[in-house]
Write a structure and sequence with these properties.
This protein is an alpha+beta fold. It has 3 helices and 8 strands. A hairpin with a 2-residue loop joins strand 5 and strand 6. The radius of gyration is 15 Å and the shape is elongated. The chain binds zinc ion.
């Protein structure tokens, strides 16, 4: 198993950042030929998902739909004021798994690995864990 850490400095309150190339580089550096890559976000107000990275409007639509689904506001118990960010992060989840074949990530044509910030701007980390096929 190889663990690589990627640093991300987010720029906005909420933002989706395509990290596909950075994850692919971490997998190449692990020198693993075939297996699985788990991409894990060690935060409670950020998440990771796989979706279209070709049309930037998809990222904007995801953020605006989550905003309608889980609006910010004073009606939560969590006193820090960012309960909506915690809930949006849990809805998308904190890890995704991608196959590795011949040292490369195997993704669909339109798929990218998207880091999702819900309470930025902040310094963030993503962990890339590459494991050999058993
Ligand atoms: Zn909080």
């Amino acid at each position: 198993m190889a663990l690589k850490r990627i640093s991300i400095k987010t720029q906005a309150k909420q933002e989706i950042v395509d990290i596909t190339e950075r994850v692919a580089r971490a997998v190449r550096e692990s020198a693993l030929s075939d297996g699985l890559c788990t991409i894990f976000v060690p935060h409670t107000t950020a998440a990771i998902t796989i979706n279209e990275n070709a049309d930037p409007a998809v990222k904007e639509d995801i953020l605006s739909a989550l905003g309608r689904l889980v609006p910010a506001g004073p009606h939560y118990k969590h006193a820090e004021g960012n309960a909506h960010a915690h809930i949006r992060a849990s809805l998308l989840g904190h890890s995704v798994t991608v196959p590795i074949e011949a040292g490369r990530l195997v993704l669909g044509t339109w798929q990218g690995i998207l880091f999702c910030e819900f309470d930025g701007p902040r310094q963030r980390e993503v962990w890339v864990i590459s494991s050999p096929a058993s």
